[in-house]
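Give me structure tokens for this 177-residue protein.
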Amino acid sequence: MINIDFNNFNHLQYFDNVFTPKQNNRIWDDFLNKGMWEYGHSSNQKSKMKFWYAELIDKDFFTNELFLSIKKLIGNNFEIIRCYANGQTAFQEAEMHIDSSEDDEYTLLYYPMNNWDIQWKGETVFLLPSGQLEYVLPFSNGAVFFPAKWSHYGRCPSTSFPFGLRVTIAYKLKMIN
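Here you go.
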């Protein structure tokens, strides 16, 4: 576990090797490649930009086994509010949004892709409290952790992306005492 100063949270927290290779393979083989996707999700209710979505909050593998690994990274003082996967193809751009306006809510955004080429684009764009933008390319078995009130959005992959969906898994978390 890294030491996160929750009273002075002013930059993204990055994590490599979030899950074991076996767990990451199971994410793909048992869930994301099983046709559980629904089309029509958006960054906010007013958005006309739609993309793919898969609900994961009802999957014990995500809310128990994988969440135990996450708590080893960020601490045990969190509960899951929501857990789902987003999928974007070329031309399915998201919109800048926040996940919550609450000070005690955070998001862990996991990148399950096994590899990613810089030419495929698909960055997550963050507006930091300083006013600076930070761009995060999907990175294999990696995650970023940030306050849910930070504005961000997922850029769609380029047309040269050969594998279909640019996928992220979002854990919406609430700090508990």
